[in-house]
Amino acid sequence: MKLIKVKNYEELSKKASAFIVETVNQKPNAVIGMATGSTAEGTYEYLVKAFQNDEVSFTEAHSVNLDEYVGLSPENDQSYHAYMDHHLFKHIDMPAENHFIPDGEANDLQDECVRYESRIEELGGVDLQLLGLGHNGHIGFNEPGTSFQSKTQVVDLAESTRKANARFFEVMEEVPDQAITMGIATILKSKRILLLVSGKGKAEILNKLLESEQTESIPATALKEHHDVTIIADADALSLFE
Ligand code: F6R
What we know:
Blueprint: E1 2-6, H1 9-26, E2 31-34, H2 38-52, E3 62-65, E4 67-69, H3 80-87, E5 99-100, H4 109-122, E6 128-132, E7 153-156, H5 159-165, E8 178-181, H6 184-188, E9 192-197, H7 203-211, E10 229-234
Helix pairs in contact: 1-2
């Protein structure tokens, strides 16, 4: 894993956006794996600026999102469909039919997982997968204990993850307790992976990730077996790492 140390969140976001711009400029029909959450917001902000400055166009590109909550409709403000529209899709020229996000309202969720996994394969796989890091080491919504062989699946969210994400909801009871997420094996099939880690709150888990061997109790350690992983981390996130 290659580690890029940056000063702060601003620099992290700029660098991550530049990675995506470069990927799409080299391969206009690239498939970009998108993450949601607070960490990715700045990256999308810079990506929108790059599009507005004519530095990149997404007309041939595709996006596949890591995950979606079970039971939230795309119209629900807290759904990842709404997040992506708000932060990225409505500002850029990627055709709507090129956006793929799991359907958390599917009648048959297992079937949706199989469909999503094959959709990624039909697209030729993910060229660059963006990831954030959960406080418990999750990637996507693959919580500690998830098999490294897992494919797209329905998962129960850890109570700590529900609490961490409660800030986006009015009351804790509204936070879904399940999600559909790309599995760890799905993520590892991506050609390149970019993991973003920002802030003091992530310092402990980032330190564990960098220092420990592969273990299913820290899902992100699965990334250690991938040949092209770049971590961009800011000074706060790296504050416990020597
Ligand atoms: C989001 C996702 C999660 C987040 C992680 C970090 O699609 O899959 O793994 O990337 O929970 O979230 P933030 O950036 O909000 O700290």
